[in-house]
Design brief:
Blueprint: H1 3-18, H2 22-46, H3 54-79, H4 88-101, H5 107-132, H6 136-154, H7 169-174, E1 180-181, E2 184-185, H8 186-204, H9 206-216, H10 218-223, H11 228-254, H12 265-275, H13 287-307, H14 311-335
Antiparallel strand pairs: 1-2
Protein name: ABC transporter permease
Organism: Vallitalea maricola
Length: 341
Amino acid sequence: MSAKDNTVLVKSRFNDVDDKNGISKLFDKAGVYVIALLLIILGIIVAPTKFLTPDNMLNILRAVGMLGITACGLSFVIYSSQMADMSVPSAMAFSGIITVQFLHFGLIPALILGIMFGMLIGLVNGIVVGYFRANAILWTLAMQFGMEGIMRYVWSGNQLYPDLEPGTSGAAFVNIFRMEIGPVPLLIIVMIILYIAANFVMKKTKFGNQLKLVGSAYDVAKCTGINVRRTVLYSFLISSLTASIAGIFITSMNKLGVFYLGEGYDFKSVTAIVIGGMALSGGRGNIWGVLGGVLVMGLLNNILTFIGIPTAVQNVFVGLVFIAVVALHTYKLRKVGKDYA
């Protein structure tokens, strides 16, 4: 089969899923933001004087900032059809611990080292999954448990505290999460910049086109000459990069580094990505939909807080939303003769 024939085969796979009427296509593109709009209306009804205020809107964005950052990078893994990266929490915790550990070298060197060490997890994941074709979920879950054990052993399960004396690198570090540029928190600005960059990479670069082909038809992409193993490796590196950045923010927020920071961000990130319309089977969806999924989760949790529902119960609602979205997506695919989600 020639490269041209392979390309036609890939396009036909997209077309048979996307062969819908105009309204359905419009909903697929903007559906998550329609849901966000409906949640905003519900929030206004629940808390008329408190919900739609600048402070509350910033609180929602700040609350989902780290989730947005992790979901941004993890979307590359899912886009490449690897389902999930369950080692996101360990990359977050590890980058934070390393940053605090090396703050005596200065803030910038410590941040660079934190991100580099966090990306080592992505490098190992990418090699094992991309080059040795290990199951992504099983391997990254094993990496998560393994890294948690390493961090517990090396630091004896202790929390690492930065020096908070004024003028020290530690004081500057804990201010990262609290820093604002004008009225906007640095966390939100970093998140938006990452989504703009991710959209450019996915839609405007050769790597993004290759990632889409690998995610939609791995064997066909391989036949066209794409280095599929390297493409998968890069997707895991991107995931660990954003997880490391989020890890720095969450460590700065808590003013300590410890192995358990980041717990739950793997499932929450996958949930936001799926709500945003990205297919777990890979090759379909877009990064702005992922951002929409993050916003939907933030709005939902904020509304539930106004209603008075405890955080533990809120997680039940998020789980139910995840199940409903996956079920709906699977139903829509089976209607066009597809069995994968």
